[in-house]
């Protein structure tokens, strides 16, 4: 993150001299390079097999703006969404996330992702909706396609989180809907607010269901792999199953209660699909088996760039000083986010 942040801070210092279009283009190049370096590890190095289901052909046809909904099981999930964005004609540069508030404390990461358009929300306590709305307005102002990824469950589904799962089940019983066994009850506020602000700016809503073959291994009890397990696990089990439904935005209801009900129904369907997957039936609407991986020509150059940037301080005192200044600036950047009411 330090090389990445050093370049970004340098660009930020010169932003008043650089036209916004040029600044955005360079920032997108930097961001997509980082994402493609991640794909090098999680696709190429891991030799991942990917099966697509549903509307992958429609989603891959052209770049477009979308609100993306996905179930959440692992810290690998965001990389999987990046894999999909890359297949939309290299649209990983447009990928933004709605993420939990605490992550703005991560040194350098919090500052950079905020200025790139990530949306921070609190899982507990009062939400600063003004800060959220400001970020959504920033996305509206972009003159380029973007994705806003939302994990409506708010946290990862894991059989180990028994208290959270039981709380989700009690909520289902209270509102008299079938109990979720494979997902958590979706929180609707972030999605509803995003739809209210971005309806005129997005082309579609993508409903994505992720499933990992590794979660069906004996003894895992539906527990999805973490990053290390995914990359270093048994090769024959390193298979991703990605189901995508694309909904044109004009097909979604505008009424708030109807929109909440729509999201709840999508999660009922998602829960059923995952139940069938764990029982051995697979996901429905198989479209592509063992999809071609992102080419080395796309992932290797940025990986080499960041590898060189990481070892550069060992050979250059100038680079070492730049990185040290970047690291020392982290507390000030976090303070800036707080004082400006950004989070």
From TrEMBL:
Lineage: Eukaryota, Metazoa, Ecdysozoa, Nematoda, Chromadorea
Gene giving rise to this polypeptide: AGPAT5
Keywords: Acyltransferase, Transferase
InterPro entries from the UniProt entry: Acyltransf_C, Plipid/glycerol_acylTrfase
Keyword Transferase: yes
Highest taxon, organism lineage: Eukaryota
GO annotation terms (biological process): phosphatidylinositol acyl-chain remodeling
PANTHER family linked to this entry: 1-ACYL-SN-GLYCEROL-3-PHOSPHATE ACYLTRANSFERASE EPSILON, 1-ACYLGLYCEROL-3-PHOSPHATE ACYLTRANSFERASE-RELATED
Residue span(s) of domain Phospholipid/glycerol acyltransferase: 66-192
Family designation: Belongs to the 1-acyl-sn-glycerol-3-phosphate acyltransferase family.
Species the sequence originates in: Toxocara canis
This protein's record includes keyword Ribosomal protein: no
GO CC annotation, single: mitochondrion
Protein name: 1-acyl-sn-glycerol-3-phosphate acyltransferase epsilon
GO molecular function: acyltransferase activity
One Pfam assignment: Acyltransf_C
């Amino acid at each position: 993150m330090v090389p990445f942040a050093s370049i970004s801070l340098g660009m930020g210092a010169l932003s008043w001299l650089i036209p916004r279009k040029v600044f955005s283009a360079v920032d997108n190049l930097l961001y997509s390079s980082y994402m493609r370096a991640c794909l090098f590890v999680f696709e190429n190095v891991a030799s991942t097999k990917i099966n697509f289901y549903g509307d992958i052909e429609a989603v891959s046809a052209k770049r477009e703006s979308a609100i993306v909904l996905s179930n959440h099981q692992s810290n690998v999930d965001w990389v999987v969404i990046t894999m999909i964005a890359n297949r939309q004609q290299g649209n990983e540069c447009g990928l933004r996330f709605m993420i939990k508030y605490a992550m703005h404390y991560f040194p350098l990461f919090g500052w950079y992702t905020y200025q790139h358009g990530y949306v921070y929300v609190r899982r507990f306590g009062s939400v600063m909706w003004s800060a959220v709305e400001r970020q959504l307005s920033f996305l509206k102002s972009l003159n380029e396609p973007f994705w806003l990824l939302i994990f409506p469950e708010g946290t990862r589904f894991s059989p180990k989180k028994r208290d959270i799962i039981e709380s989700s089940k009690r909520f289902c019983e209270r509102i008299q809907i079938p109990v979720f066994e494979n997902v958590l009850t979706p929180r609707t506020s972030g999605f509803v607010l995003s739809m209210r602000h971005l309806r005129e700016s997005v082309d579609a809503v993508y409903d994505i269901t992720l499933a990992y073959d590794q979660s069906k291994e004996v003894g895992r009890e539906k527990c999805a792999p973490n990053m290390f397990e995914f990359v270093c696990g048994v090769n024959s089990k390193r298979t991703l199953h990605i189901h995508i439904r694309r909904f044109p935005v004009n097909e979604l209801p505008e009424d708030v209660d109807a929109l909440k009900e729509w999201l709840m129904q999508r999660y009922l369907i998602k829960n059923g699909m995952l139940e069938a997957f764990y029982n051995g039936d697979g996901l429905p609407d198989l479209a592509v088996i063992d999809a071609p991986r992102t080419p080395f020509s796309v992932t290797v150059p940025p990986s080499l760039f960041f590898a060189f940037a990481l070892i550069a301080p060992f050979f250059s005192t100038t680079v070492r000083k730049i990185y040290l200044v970047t690291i020392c600036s982290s507390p000030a950047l976090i303070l800036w986010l707080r004082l400006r009411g950004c989070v």
